[in-house]
Write a structure and sequence with these properties.
Keywords: Membrane, Transmembrane, Transmembrane helix. It contains three helices and no strands. By secondary structure, the protein is mainly alpha-helical. The longest helix has 39 residues.
Length: 99
C-alpha cells in the first residue's frame, strides 16, 4: 500500500515543523558557543586556570550532540526515520496478510 500523497497544507505544516526543529538546534548551538566562550574567558582571566571550564563544555556538548542527532538524524523527516517507519509498515502489512 503506497503512502497517500500529502496535501499542500500537510506539506506546509511538516515543513514548518522541521524548520522549527532545526532553528531550535541552531539557537541551542549559538547559546552553547557564546556561554562557553564566556566561561572559558572567565576561567582564564578571572581565575587563572582553564580546567573547570572543560566540564560545562563536555557536558553541555553531549546534550547539544544528542539534540542534533534527534533533529537531523532521527527527527521527523530524516531518511533514517522514514526508512524505519516504512520497514515497520511493510512488516505489519506482511503479518496482516499472513493471518
Amino acid at each position: 500500500m503506497a503512502n497517500s500523497p500529502l496535501t499542500p497544507d500537510d506539506i506546509d505544516r511538516l515543513a514548518r515543523k522541521r524548520a522549527g526543529a532545526k532553528l531550535g538546534w541552531y539557537t541551542h548551538a549559538t547559546v552553547y558557543v557564546l556561554v562557553n566562550l564566556f566561561l572559558f574567558a572567565m576561567s582564564q582571566y578571572a581565575f587563572g586556570t582553564r580546567r573547570w571550564s572543560l566540564a560545562p563544555v563536555l557536558g553541555w556538548g553531549l546534550g547539544l550532540a544528542l539534540h542534533g542527532i534527534s533533529v537531523f538524524v532521527i527527527g521527523s523527516g530524516s531518511g533514517l526515520r522514514e526508512r524505519l517507519v516504512q520497514k515497520e509498515r511493510d512488516k505489519l502489512q506482511r503479518e496482516r496478510g499472513e493471518r
